[in-house]
Please model this.
Amino acid sequence: SYLQETKKGLEGIVALDTSISFIDGMQGILKYRGIDIEHLAEMSYETISYLLINGILPGEQELAAYSNRLKSERRINGEMIDIMRVCNYGTEALDSLRTAISCTAHMDHENDNNSLDANKNKAVRLIAKLPTMIAALYRCKSGDFPFQPDETLSHGANFLYMLRGEAPSAIEAEAIEKDFILSAEHELNPSTFALRIAASTLADVYSAIITGLCTLKGPLHGGARRGVMEMLDEVAVPENANNYVLYKLSRKEKIMGFGHRVYRTYDPRSRIFKDMAKRVAKENGDPTWYEVAESLEHVMYREFLDVRGRPIYPNVDFYSAVIYKYLRIPPELATSVFAIGRVSGWTAHCFEQYADNRVIRPRAHYI
Ligand code: CMC
Model:
């Protein structure tokens, strides 16, 4: 047969060329548009989202103009809030966010315009509106009125403000900003690949984003963040980590927030998240969640090294979830908060697909 051997999960298959991000899974290197993640983590999410969708870092004037555009697009209208009241979530905010993004498409006067300019406008709208929509969903669920965006705050701080009705502390603002930056892009992860397939059929930006969003939901991908938050509560104290891991592994269950298809060493984002989580825990005064996480990391490392001869490391969802605990982000919002960051990477991939398109259509081996 001319068909090649099946690669389960498409492991190791190179599906396309990209200039958006670069991963070296052996050495633990991640770059967006050629810039190391450690360097990017010190910038603002606005800068990073501009970099991802436009391909270059903004100058001072470009950044100011872009920032103003985001400000002008952050608000959501009364109809959207009505929709949120009707389509409020049961256990998972992502279900309602999916509906809200669909409705944003209906309300976008450029919905049918597939030019690059119009598509970039849609990207700005999505980047600006996602935090407002998620905070509003949460507020509506609690029977409260949503807060309007505060134009004086950064992308991250404004989100926490809209969620809680009070501005976050400096360290909390830094933590959520870093979360959005580190979550913004990661090559052909499942949601981005799914989205590129949708884009390769020349489906519009909103349809492609919703494809990505649906794929993010699963516990083996973006849903792991919520899983980690729940695990931290379940384990409760560091002394329980050992028995928890041994019990789960004996039942062949996955421990959320560990392992990665591409990294064979420490994920560089996890390092930054771990450091940030430690600082947030210290500021909070109760380090328990952080200590539980560290114990889980030690036990997992030991178990995998001893039993399988190869260690396992925390992935991007692990210490970010510890940070979410300290930021008082409700677990049912965790996957949606991940999407706030990821939406800029998703739209960048959409544009890259449109720019040099061939429909993505692999083969299957018939048995
Ligand atoms: N807990 C327990 N065992 C694990 C874990 C884990 N978290 N991760 C991998 N393993 C085991 C796995 O069971 C397998 O063992 P065996 O060879 O005996 O069947 C071996 O390690 C190799 O793992 P795999 O499942 O073949 O790896 P994969 O590349 O197919 O999957 C993964 C990668 C991330 C889906 C997987 O590690 C996993 O399910 N992790 C837990 C969920 C999670 O944290 N997902 C977030 C992924 S990273 C960021 C994101 O996408 O959001």
